[in-house]
Each structure stands twice: as structure tokens, then as C-alpha cells.
Q: What sequence folds into this?
């Protein structure tokens, strides 16, 4: 979908929503995303949060550390 069609579809979607709370949520989300710069999320983390995230990433590269989709789905079935 090209940019013009995407904007038009987005405008139609917004025009079809009558829920003020939902519209405000969309507005704040789009506003925040349009102002966000690459790396903002990372820059906002504390050093220990960065370390933990990097450690989790490295651990996820080891196949034995991964849990299969079916196992997770069965564990959390009551919330799905």
C-alpha cells in the first residue's frame, strides 16, 4: 500500500471511531511514535536494565534456553 492510500485508509478508520478514549489512545500513540528517534528506548534504560536485556538476548541464542510455543500456550491457556 502506498503512502497516500495508507493515509486515506487511516483517515477513514479514524473517522469511523466514535469512542473518545480509543481515539485519544491512538492520538497519543501516533504522536509519541512520530516524535521518537532511533535509539530513544535504549537511551532511556538504566545501565542495569541494559545489561539484563543484553544478557537475555545472549541467552535466547542458545536453543536449550528456549521454550516451545505449544508449551507456553498450554501453560497460559487460561489467559488466552
A:
Amino acid at each position: 500500500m502506498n503512502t497516500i492510500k495508507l493515509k486515506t485508509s487511516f483517515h477513514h478508520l479514524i473517522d469511523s471511531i466514535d469512542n473518545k478514549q480509543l481515539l485519544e489512545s491512538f492520538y497519543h500513540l501516533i504522536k509519541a511514535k512520530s516524535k521518537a528517534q532511533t535509539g530513544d528506548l535504549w537511551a532511556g534504560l538504566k545501565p542495569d536494565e541494559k545489561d539484563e536485556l543484553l544478557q537475555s538476548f545472549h541467552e535466547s541464542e542458545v536453543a536449550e534456553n528456549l521454550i516451545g510455543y505449544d508449551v507456553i500456550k498450554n501453560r497460559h491457556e487460561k489467559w488466552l
Observations:
- The mean pLDDT is 92.
- The helical segments are 3-16, 20-35, 40-43, 47-60, 69-75.
- The chain has five helices and no strands.
- Residues 44-80 form one domain.
